[in-house]
Amino acid sequence: MLRQVVISCLLALLALPVAARTRPHFGGTLRVEIEEDPWQRPSGLARRLVLDGLTRMGADGVVYPALAIQWKSENEGHRWEFRLRPGVHFHDGSPLTSVAVVTSLNIICDANCPWTAIHAVGPSVVFTGDSPMPNLPALLARDEYLIAGDAGGNIGTGPFQLNGFNNGVLSLAANDNCWQGRPFLDVVEIRVHRNIHDQWLDLSVGRADLVEVPAEQLRQAREQRLTVLQSPLATLLALTVANSGVLGNPDLRAAIALAVDRSALSNVVFQKQGEITASLLPSTLTGYSFLFSTERNLNKSHEKHGGLTPPPLMLAAESGSAMQLAAQHIALNLHDAGFYVQVVAAGVARSADLSLRSLPLEQNQPQAALEAMLRGAGVQAPVLEQTPAGLFRVEREFLETHTLIPLLYLPRAYAISGRVRDLRLSMDGTPLLADASLQDAP
């Protein structure tokens, strides 16, 4: 009998993944390589390691306490009070106070905020709005509203603190006094502005532990037998269209929306990764995205065009080879519909007629997610609807303006070395490095 029990326990142990059988070790340096700026907003990798929000969004769609331990709504959602967690300090030793939170939020959100005014009241932060703010606790979990103790956003309350920046490497050291508890890693080193080819090379020879895998290279990464962590659909690729100047004509904007070939973008540029969409939210979140047509219709586009000959348009695209290639495809699509489009790099043309951009999906509550997407598109009105039918109506009314054209939903992914243990991705694809450890840590 004893022998059977021992054998059963051994078999159960072998069935567990390696990470589950290995107790985390404290210590060690995790080496990360990325293409972009680690402080960029939103979703800069360093931001989530250094800064915290008043709330955080769980994978289960529930809003959990973070720097705020409780909150309540009054006056039918026009007033919210968030009580701060006591005993929290910024990395420079200064205390987290309601005044510091108000100052931080006023710096980072001077326009298009979900609230009208914000005040420090004792140990609480009070938000008031001319309109109801039913989604405020969920919205405050977004990357955009992380709390910093300085204007530069490098001093926070998070699990890691700024340690230095030398020769293109940002060093973050463990915050021993973090209110969430000390992370397992001693140091996270982030090598910035590293192209994907060099990232993968460094991973293969042991010079890196965590590197990026763009959606269009997921298949290649698996063919090379990289250990890949992939998020659910986390980023909306969308085309924003100016509603002024020549494109103030709604028929021309509609002609542009009808001319874009989403299937070609998905198949050719992004190697069939992700999900083709004409909806702001993915089908997994709402169930109604199929009601928005994703088909290209050149004949109808020409009808909307009405024989007009608009002047040349400028299309700005975010950096990255895939985004530039996608922009070129869209320019060809629009040429077929009678538009002449010049592709320029993002930032070159501040007043571009069209912009190809990525919008992170940071929420998994449909109502809050839709409001966040609309605010990302410049719409300031809160989303008050809660039912799928009501959310569909709000989304349809906005999309019929054709000022933002959803194209694809894409996952985020990273490849890791064999040293890394217990690493997970958040719902928006951000690596949760505060919970990770290294197998060979001392």
Structural overview:
This protein folds into three domains: about 20-40 and about 160-230 and about 415-440, D-Maltodextrin-Binding Protein, domain 2 (3-Layer(aba) Sandwich), CATH 3.40.190.10; about 50-145, Alpha-Beta Complex (Dipeptide-binding Protein, domain 1); about 235-410, Dipeptide-binding Protein, Domain 3 (Dipeptide-binding Protein, domain 3, Roll). It is built from 14 helices and 19 strands. It has helices at about 1-15, 20, 45-50, 100-110, 135-140, 195-205, 220-225, 250-260, 260-270, 285, 300-305, 320-335, 365-375, 390-400, and strands spanning about 30-35, 55, 65, 70-75, 80-85, 115-120, 125-130, 160-165, 170-175, 185-190, 210, 225-240, 275, 315, 340-345, 355-360, 405-415, 420, 435-440. α8 runs antiparallel to α11 and α13 (about 365-375) packs parallel to α14 (about 390-400). The protein starts with a helix and ends with a strand.
A few lines on this structure:
With 442 residues, the chain is an alpha+beta fold.
